[in-house]
Each structure stands twice: as C-alpha cells, then as structure tokens.
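fyi for ur records
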Amino acid sequence: MSGEIIRETKSLCPVCLRRIPASHVREGDSVFLRKTCPEHGAFSAVIWRGESWMPMKSWRGGIPQPPDDSDARCPDGCGICGNHLQETCCVLVEVTNRCNLNCSFCFAGDSILEDPSTETVKNWLADLSGAGHSFIHFSGGEPTLRDDLPEIAAYAKGLGIRYLQLNTNGVRLANDPAYVKALAGAGVSFAFMQFDGTTDEIHRKLRGAPLLGAKLRAIENCDRFNMGVALVSTVVPGVNDDNVGELISFAAARSPSVRGVHFQPASYFGRYPKVPDDGMRLTLPELLKKIQEQTNGEISPEHFQPSHCDHPMCGFHGNFVVMPDRVLPLTRRGEDAGEEPCCRAPIASPAERSRDFVGRRWERASSCCGNDGAREDLESLDGFLGRLVSHSFTITSMAFQDCYNIDIERLRRCSMHVYANGRTIPLCARYISRQVVC
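which gave:
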C-alpha cells in the first residue's frame, strides 16, 4: 500500500485479537491505521480525515511515543497495570445486562446474564471506594431495569463516592417519575441519556422505536428533581450526521435542564449491522466540521480542545454558556479553559480535572457566588458569573475504538474504565472482548 508512515504503534488483529504492529499512514487528506496479522492478513481503517485543515499531528500535539511495552499484557489481562499511562477518572459499573430496547448499535451486544445481587454490587462499590474512586457511572444493559438502583446509589454515597451518574436510554425515566425522584434522592446527580437526534425517524433507525416523546418526558422528569442531563448521540454516517447542529440547538434551548451534548462517532463492537468500511466511519475533524457547518459557523473547531484526560485522539471538549440569544463559547484551542473564576482553585492531574469538570458543568447546582443566573442584568459581573453556573453547557465527543481501528497507544492513556472481575479495565478493551461480528 502507498502512503507516508507518520507514527508506529500496536493494534489487534480483528479476527483473532492477537496483538500486532501497526502504523499510521497518511494518504492525501486522510490517515489510516494499517496492520498485518501473520495468520489473517492485512487490514486498514481510516482514523482521520482533514489533514489539509487540521493535521493529525497538530491535534495530537507533543504527546510522546509511549515507552516500550513489549512485556505488557494490555489489552488482554493487565487491568490498570504499571504500563498504563493514565489514572482512572470514571469507572463504569455494569449492574445489569438486560435492556428494554433492541438497538442496532449497542456496546453490550446480545449477552443475557442474571443480574448481580444487590449485595454483590455493593461489594463492588466498597472495593472501588476503598481504591479511591470517586466517580461512578451506573451502566449496563439498561441500569434502570433494576428496582434496587436507588438503594445501591444511596449505599455508594454513604461510602463517600462523590459523583454518581447514570447511563440510560431514558425509557423508565420518562414513564416513572417516582423512580427518578428516588434516584435523585439517593444521590444520582446526572443522567447520560441516549439521544441520537431530534426526529423519530432517527430513533427508529438506530433504536427500533419512535422515542422522541419519551426522551422529552425523561428530560422533564429529571428537571423536576434537579438531575442534570446530557444528550448522548451515536453518530452514524448517512443516518444522523446531518442532525448534529440541530441537536445542539435543541439541547441549548432546554438549558439549564440539559447540560450538554456528547457525540459518539459510531464504533463497531458489541452489536452492529455489518463489518464497517471506511464510508461508515466519522472521524473527529469531520465531526468538528459538521458542527461548524450546521451551526452556521457560530461554533467552530477553534472552540474545542483535544481530550486532556485521555489520548488527544480519543475526543474533544468545549465549554459554553447558554445566553438568552446565543451559545457563547468559553474554550479556545491552545488555551487552558479548565479553570473558572468562580471560587475555584487550580487542580492537579488530568483525571482530577475531568472529575471537577463533571461537578462544575454537568451537575445541576446553584451558583457558589449566590446568583442563579436568571437575572436580566447579564452585563454585570455577578449576573454573568451566575449564568456561568446555572446555564453552563458542554459539547463533547468520545471516539471509542473497535477491533478494526484500535490503537494500543490510545488504550494505554485511557481514563474511562470498566469494573470487571475485581479489576478496572479500559472501556474499549472491555467491549472489544465481546465482539459479535469480529
């Protein structure tokens, strides 16, 4: 194959999952991950489109080539070992494998196992708390299928776990306000809610049902009980990649109930329709370009920074505040927008920064400066500071890896981990082990 090799790394064979050498190869405006398995042959997957206006090297910055890890067992069995280059920020705890939808794209695939007992989950949380983890995502399957989740959440808060968030499709939150109240009362402060677009057509294609009305009721119920919501969109080329700008507008119009939008370019693990070709991929610069085009330039790539807590190639984040007439950017590439003037001291590590980001941006809270942001004199400093807290808004993205495009260098810098069998495991490694098609 032609092209210029611009970086060497390691990856996995998508057939046998053997660890093999890989290269980043630039061809024209694109960069590909290319690798060859001695048994199953050569594979290629596009990982970047946009070299002409956003070179991958520029986005990646000065992050060094990681030290040799030839003796490491990553991703097969190390958990977070001495060769891992980042501490844990967020831990996903899978409380069920059951679900009340049958989505065409799903991390968890089709495995149906008996739920762990309440005491088992509590023991997991005690283990995580004892190891110093303070940011837990209840996940699954669909975790709201557990009637005991409020009890589990209250137990976690009693252990001193600071941040409790919920990965959910929102169906039960829409139909059971008493359950939402119980979760909020138990300490669940935030819902990371599946929300792929602003039309029922999008939801039918990706989730198999016209869910828009239910999603809106879920947002309303979370708002009633002061639970923050982020809308999480799996972005699939040809399905909803033309809806990203409208989704941002939709979410901002529902601020402060909705705290932001999180885009996940489709990854191909768990359950998905077919083996992907490059036309089924959406890379980070392409997503940034779509945001710019579909917001008529009001939000541009310059308003986003690469991930600080993970590898820069894993995603981006942008901080904003929703004003009465616009969404005002607070982030500029190349600037450190992690600190705010409102009663905040500098923080130490990238993982701590990410956890603090959650507390400041995603949770519903009153201003620490005593202003609710609702006053009309937003030209005043106090009014604007209050608005920063009450109507903060984020646009973020996470480009998860599958067996075709996985880069071990990125995996070694992962801070989003899954608790399994007494260990914390990088999320992409966890779900790659559950391949259905690969």
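The radius of gyration is 21 Å. thats all i got for now
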